[in-house]
Write a structure and sequence with these properties.
98% of the residues lie in helices and 0% in strands. By secondary structure, it is mostly helical. The radius of gyration is 45 Å and the shape is rod-shaped. The chain starts with a helix and ends with a helix.
Length: 108
């Protein structure tokens, strides 16, 4: 009788161990699937980060070019203003020179 009880206990232990084994195998497979999905998601995120970094670098370069262009335009604008002031001064002098000559021509 004790041998039968021992055999039943061993059988129960074997079956519960097999049940745990099946459960653990199922969990391992589930974890492997989750890991694979996580790795895939990480790959997608890395790709997005690379794309964003590249876009950022392009924007930085574009900003740098814009600043250089702005500096060039500011320098050109200053030069043109200076030239305009000089030409306005020359025009004023020329008009002052012309006025007496116009008056002299009208007297004649």
């Amino acid at each position: 009788m004790i041998k039968k009880i021992a055999k039943v206990i061993v059988a129960v232990l074997i079956l519960s161990g097999a049940g745990l084994l099946v459960t653990n195998i199922s969990k391992v497979n589930s974890l492997r699937r989750e890991l694979a999905e996580s790795e895939k998601l990480c790959g997608i995120i890395r790709g997005e980060l690379d794309r964003i970094q590249k876009e950022k670098e392009e924007l930085v370069q574009e900003h740098r070019r814009s600043r250089e262009s702005s500096s060039s335009y500011i320098a050109l604008n200053a030069k043109l203003r200076s030239e305009k002031e000089k030409l306005n001064g020359d025009l004023g002098k020329a008009q002052k020179t012309i006025e007496p000559k116009k008056a002299e021509i009208q007297r004649l």
